[in-house]
């Protein structure tokens, strides 16, 4: 039996978080979930925030559970959802709680920034699709919402780096996450300081960028004492959870697409260089940072957040229901044709998702969905239609023909979603593994610690360790 290598992967999603103990032995990875916890948004004073210190408390609870396993853990790393951040003063203190990206403070910010720099020029510099919650719009909104905090901010840390700072006392900025801000030069893979200054932001807030696979440092003595976990290195991986998910997707060729399917659906391809042209601007595709300095050319699509909220509201108003129940109801629905547009702003952060689905279908002349199954089918049809269009436009822009779609993430446990994705796109779907972000996080740690040659070798290990399920169109 070969040597056992252990590391910890923290994966914070927009609705839940978990810590997983990853073990490499005899060329195979195995996973053991040690800690899982909800990630609730908090509404205060008309705004939406993250429960930051609650999340950090859960992170430390995970470290305590890991220490109790009494195995030699080499390293840990954190990935989270994109764009959100915390601001710090000159003494390294957090000033103001991080605001949730779904907050309405960014309303109108795109138009205001468009008066400062033409949007086509902004896209040509950063390569990032225009989404109302990108960090660029959040930071500009700080001027109105929290000007005193912004004036006193000396450093910005995005969410994974913020947790990393709490653990190590070291501030850093990781490439894949920085790219989601729409403040990074897509070609140079560095901050666009000219753009930052044009927006009236303090360029000193933005620290040097490190690439995935950088060893950041050791846990603070106080963290070791509190958790009992000692001698563990903290690694900067693909800190944006999409980058980790793509690293964990066992793509079979350069022409394979990935679909990271969770709260959001991220559908795209891995490229060596960004695509910054008229077509990518027209179709609003994004060039996010990927592992090894590559580019994730992708489309962000409002994902299973809509289904999660449908379930939550149904449980509140109609009675308890599980996701398998929803799938059964959808398959049995009398009308299978209702469709929503998941990009419609009404589905971003509604108080009642059922009401919005029914309202949308009525207002678009489709009639009224009756029951849970027909509302669920409206979501399934809306999501998979977006997948179809995204594949079509991506093939047009890149000049490539997508050979298959590798779906990873929790959404692949929904067989109906996988079936409809293959049917609607006309592409073969490889579903698996479920824990894409965790696996990508882990293999980058293994590369950083010299245990695995490179990310491709890591993908080979994943392919040999986990089964995938094939869905034919």
TrEMBL record:
Carbohydrate kinase FGGY C-terminal domain residues: 258-449
EC number: 2.7.1.-
The UniProt record lists the keyword ATP-binding: yes
Keywords per UniProt: ATP-binding, Kinase, Nucleotide-binding, Rhamnose metabolism, Transferase
Domain of life: Bacteria
SUPFAM superfamilies, per database record: Actin-like ATPase domain
MF terms (GO), sorted A to Z: transferase activity
Similarity annotation: Belongs to the FGGY kinase family.
Protein name: Rhamnulokinase family protein
Organism expressing this protein natively: Laedolimicola intestinihominis
Native organism taxonomy: Bacteria, Bacillati, Bacillota, Clostridia, Lachnospirales
